[in-house]
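Limitations

Structures in this collection are predictions, not experimental determinations, and the ligand pose is part of the prediction. Treat each record accordingly. The example that follows, with uridine-5'-diphosphate as the small molecule, is included so readers can see exactly what is and is not provided: the inputs are given verbatim, and the output is the predicted complex.
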Amino acid sequence: MNTVSPSAIALSVVVPVYNEQDGLGALFARLYPALDALGERYEILFVNDGSRDRSAALLAEQQRARPDVTRVILFNGNYGQHMAILAGFEHCRGRVVVTLDADLQNPPEEIGRLVAKMAEGYDYVGTIRRKRQDSWFRRHASRWMNLLREKITHVRMTDQGCMLRAYGRDVVDTINRCSEVNTFVPALAYTFSLRPTEIEVGHEERAAGESKYSLFKLVRLNFDLVTGFSLMPLQFMSFLGIALALASGALFVLLMIDRLLFGSQVQGVFTLFAITFCLLGVLLFSMGLLGEYVGRIYEQVRGRPRYVVQAVLDDTEVPAAGADAPARAADGAGAR
Ligand code: UDP
Ligand code: MG
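Predicted complex:
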């Protein structure tokens, strides 16, 4: 869809935005100078993920203020941070693509270091937050999820939660060929990268507004990560099932022998209750787990658009013919 020569633009920065009106001013004030200082041709793609506050208006205003480097994609609803990044990937033209959160938790000044690392020949630069400034619960929950993900998927990342990352053009192009409905962009990129590396970056407290991730959304995101990149949970449940079946078979034989030798007895009935409830718990959990996979298959086969683009605000100078027309409406990109 985009015929602009990718080599024309060195760097694209993709920023997902969801209800960030209070922090956008500070973001603009730091992001543009940081990128101007790099001295390379760049573009910034803001993807408004259906914000219900003034974010879209502020982005449009900013696009008018810096039309040379700013492009804004407006979704018609809230499709989630990772879908917003994927839309940015589909529209961006840079040789290197950096993703950045809009809340200034990751300093935009670090982008230069990511770009320099990419220039060393890597095709994916991940990041590790030097001193993470999040709540105790978030820090510990993600440490456990990191551990679990390391064990059950092929994805090797020290800090999966940090979204300030740089991706090479090839990696982005391959991601653009995927049509996964629920996905986790950093892990997907890792899958396709040939030479990944990581660097440490600073981390700050949220400048304004609050985290857009409720506990429920966080759990869902982590399920996306696990179910999208591993079948290990299902295999683990089969092994657990076999082990439990063998154990209960042995218990049955034991009880039969006991009954034949000593006659019928009612002791131990509560122990049996306890065992039964425990097994019921395991059963319900494995059904739920199965449901997680089935639900995702269902969403995938339904084949609805992953997101709907309402409008693209774009007046950037287009170096090649036939590229994005300015302010295209109802783009529908990503509809597969
Ligand atoms: N975000 C988004 N859609 C969502 C949730 C979040 O585009 O449904 C954006 C949000 O505006 C921010 C980034 O994703 O730019 C990270 O969100 P947040 O800072 O709330 O996540 P946290 O830092 O708490 O993990
Ligand atoms: Mg944040």
